[in-house]
Amino acid sequence: MTEVMIPRLCVIGVGLIGGSLARALKRSGAVGEVVGSGRCENNLRKALELGVVDRYETRLAAAVTGADVVLVAVPLGAIGAIFQSIAAALPDQAVLTDVGSSKGSVIADAIQAFGHLPPSFVPGHPIAGTERSGVEASFAELFQKRRVILTPLLETDPAAHNLIRTMWQATGAEVVDMGVRHHDEVLAATSHLPHMLAYALVDTLARMDDRAEIFRYAAGGFRDFTRIASSDPQMWHDICLANREALLAVLASFSADLARLSDAIRRADSQPILELFQRAKRARDNLYHLE
Length: 291
Ligand code: NAP
Description:
Elements lengths: L5 E7 L3 H13 L2 E7 L3 H9 L5 E2 L3 H5 L4 E4 L3 H11 L8 E4 L5 H11 L6 E2 L1 E4 L19 E4 L7 H12 L4 E4 L2 H27 L4 H6 L3 H7 L6 H10 L1 H23 L3 H18 L4
Parallel strand pairs: 1-2, 1-4, 2-3, 4-5, 5-6, 8-9
Antiparallel strand pairs: 7-8
Helix pairs in contact: 4-5, 7-11
Bound molecules: NADP nicotinamide-adenine-dinucleotide phosphate.
The site of NADP nicotinamide-adenine-dinucleotide phosphate (NAP) has 26 residues, from helix 1, helix 4, strand 7 and helix 10.
């Protein structure tokens, strides 16, 4: 019989990401017991009924007791308070990790709560998700063939880093390491900016007087472009504030490009418009191998 990789996993925030990780690790046999914790007992009871956790604790200190890995999977705005609440109770042997969509803010939260960066802390971010939330939306295959970014620091214990890398690999994910700042800049461009655009576009149209008429004629392209505007507002509120420096930089660069396009349209200047569309089509076709 092979040894269980993580005898006891504590998941704080058993939602889409925390629940999916628990399901995937249970299915692969990588985890012994999963203990859930969070804010709302109804949600934890649901997680128990669904078999996502083996038991739950509403008190965070009790939840982390005896854990080998503690995964924090709550919205970014709540991570600092969670770190504060578990700091005194975290077992010496426990490896602490998170799934927050911005890494600089989570690392600052950890330093504030623990007084230093604990060597057993391995910051992480799975590049996987859906626009749905909550434990009912979780599924074991979510991370298969998806990337998980870890942003270990100089202080990070190599054994802790290795355990979290192996944990994510057991879900079928490809694990890559990245610097914290680079992570936050890349994700601002590829994930956070598109969410801002989708929310802003839907909101602009939804506030127009003839919105019923507009939405009646919205076709597949509109649906594709705006799917992510159905994502959880609180989660995205937290992300855009947590990663605001990198997000503001990419928003400024995008706004300048949009202003240039607007100007070319006003002047009916075909060449820059066509060149922009051709460049963008080539880039997207290359990305998704459509050529
Ligand atoms: P989710 O489905 O809404 O789950 C969040 C969980 O956290 C819920 O179980 C919620 O349960 C709990 N929670 C919320 N506020 C809390 C608080 N103040 N204290 C304790 N527990 C709290 O969200 P998710 O999509 O899994 O996202 C979780 C984290 O993963 C976020 O940091 C997000 O940035 C990151 N992430 C998300 C995606 C994505 O696409 N969804 C992808 C990668 C990373 P209760 O309400 O019952 O407490």
